[in-house]
Amino acid sequence: RRRSRFTLSRRLCGICIAQSLKIPHDHKPSDFDKIIRQLLDTRYARAVILFASDEDIRGVLNASKRADQIGHFLWIGSDSWGAKNSPIHQLEDAAVGAVTILPKRATISGFDAYFTSRTLENNRRNVWFAEYWEENFNCKLMSSSKKDDSSRKCTGQERISIDSKYEQEGKVQFVIDAVYAVAHALHNMQRDLCPENSGICPDMDLAGGKKLLKYIRSISFNGSAGTSVTFNRNGDAPGRYDLFQYQWNNVTGSSYRVIGQWTETLQLNDMQWPRGEQDIPSSVCSLPCRTGERKKVVKGMPCCWHCEPCDGYQYRYDEFTCKLCSYNMRPNANRTACQPIPIIKLEWHSPWAVIPVLLAILGIIATISVMVTFVRYNDTPIVRASGRELSYVLLTGIFLCYIITFLMIAKPDVGVCSFRRIFLGLGMCISYAALLTKTNRIYRIFEQGKTSVTAPRLISPTSQLAITSSLISVQLLGVFIWFVVDPPNTVIDYDEQKTFNPYLARGVLKCDITDLQIICSLGYSILLMVTCTVYAIKTRGVPENFNEAKPIGFTMYTTCIVWLAFIPIFFGTAQSAEKLYIQTTTLTISMNLSASVALGMLYMPKVYVIIFHPELNVQKRKRSFKAVATAATMSSRLSHKVSDRPNGEAKTELCENVDPNSKSSLFIRSLKV
């Protein structure tokens, strides 16, 4: 079986074979071209060991020349190549750098005299000698000969070394030593099995080949060349080889040069590499994988592999395996280990925080200014007409709406998370509970006035505070239940910003509050806001001289628009990598805008009058509930006529029907603007 072998894939004495290719017996030039293409599949494995005949060696060298790969392959020839010129004739350029071996051998002096004296007459016992004679002297002995008819007939008088070239075959030494090895083994066997006989005994006849092989492996003697002949336990004789390299020299041209020997150890002299390479060329099936890549071994070729990167959140566990980092880790820069994912939170200096904080600061300043103004002018007509008690409650709610911005941006801990739960919906709840109480009071007064001059129940300041407190207590009760069922805590969310690129991944430190819990916390306040808006719509027709329903209405309409915009933005960014920033900013800005709308529409006009037009902040004629009831009745009656009359006419008619002399003891101060 003839083979061309390529180093690198089956481990054998530290060497791997990447490919083992058979040269077909009936080969064509295309077969050798295919072999070269296959060898180039593992381009980095350049060393090729050839166990082939002269003809096959020439075919491989020719194919490498046709493929323009002269100097790429590092040929290593077996003893069948040796130092012969026939395999490389006219292919010297393709063979330069080839390393070959020959067993160390010596010329047996007595054999030359013996063999050259052999003739057809004195060597009839060798059945192959006649064929050798024909080949050596290029003649024909008999009609059954394989030589051509054109060949001359042998005379039998030819003489070896006289009529033909002769050179002692290099393997003569080993043939002689092999014969002596068998002879020594038979001698030792006869001595052990037949000690009393001089020849073969029955025990020796029955010994068999295995027993003889055992004796052969145990012999030791000096061979024909004076070297020791022994065998190891595998039956191999000690290797003794001369190493040759086919080198180019500017003076003598190309030739074989002895570069070393092997006698139990390797000894090498200077070698010459193809293409003028100075360093020892490498021959590997696959290049080492880069950092962060694993080896995917080619099936059946354990020393050949493809390099595959450990991608995503994987790191290289060993040279063959990638492993996934734990959920709170990511691979380091060279993917040799895992490292903790950085933890982030919304920072005060972030653009996402600066705008809400700025709005909140301005809102807090404005709210405190309004409260200070109202406290200072607490007994003036405008402040008293605004309903001092509910105004202070409402301003407190607005103040808390601004304060929540700082809690939402502060670094989460148990305390901050607790205050977030409390104040997240409380500020809005206080604000809209107060506004709902106001609008409900106005609505009940004018609805009652349409049918009766009797004042409705629960319209006194104390009653209004009680109603507002009861509405606020529902929110506080919900928060208390939330605390009991799910105590506040902080969590690190690694999923929110777990990007495809692990080096951009971040863990988000935040309170253990889900999006649904935020909406539920605000849900009650939104319900109060919607209910307040409904009452604002119902009281939109109340005469402007008697109420502040219209400013409340405008406040609620604007607030509803703000929160209708908030909901899709809040939930639409739930899957965004910037979820923390967008949702926090959206929530805080929405609350700031809601508070600012209420503050601006309900209180800024009053503060403006109090500060800049004190002459308008005077006591006006008080109106009795009977007058209000009359106004409500006329307003209802005129609602059908207003489209046909100018506004001034309708107002004049209303004023003419109000009894200016009514002395009812019940006055509706909060209806004054």
UniProtKB/TrEMBL annotation:
SUPFAM superfamilies: Periplasmic binding protein-like I (SSF53822). It is found in: Cell membrane. GO terms for cellular component: plasma membrane. Its main location: membrane. It is a multi-pass membrane protein. GO terms for molecular function: G protein-coupled receptor activity. Residues 352-626 form the G-protein coupled receptors family 3 profile domain. The chain crosses the membrane at residues 352-378, 390-410, 422-443, 516-537, 549-571, 591-613. PROSITE patterns: G_PROTEIN_RECEP_F3_2 (PS00980), G_PROTEIN_RECEP_F3_3 (PS00981), G_PROTEIN_RECEP_F3_4 (PS50259). It holds the Pfam family ANF_receptor. Keywords: Cell membrane, G-protein coupled receptor, Glycoprotein, Membrane, Receptor, Transducer, Transmembrane, Transmembrane helix. Belongs to the G-protein coupled receptor 3 family. This is Glutamate metabotropic receptor 7.
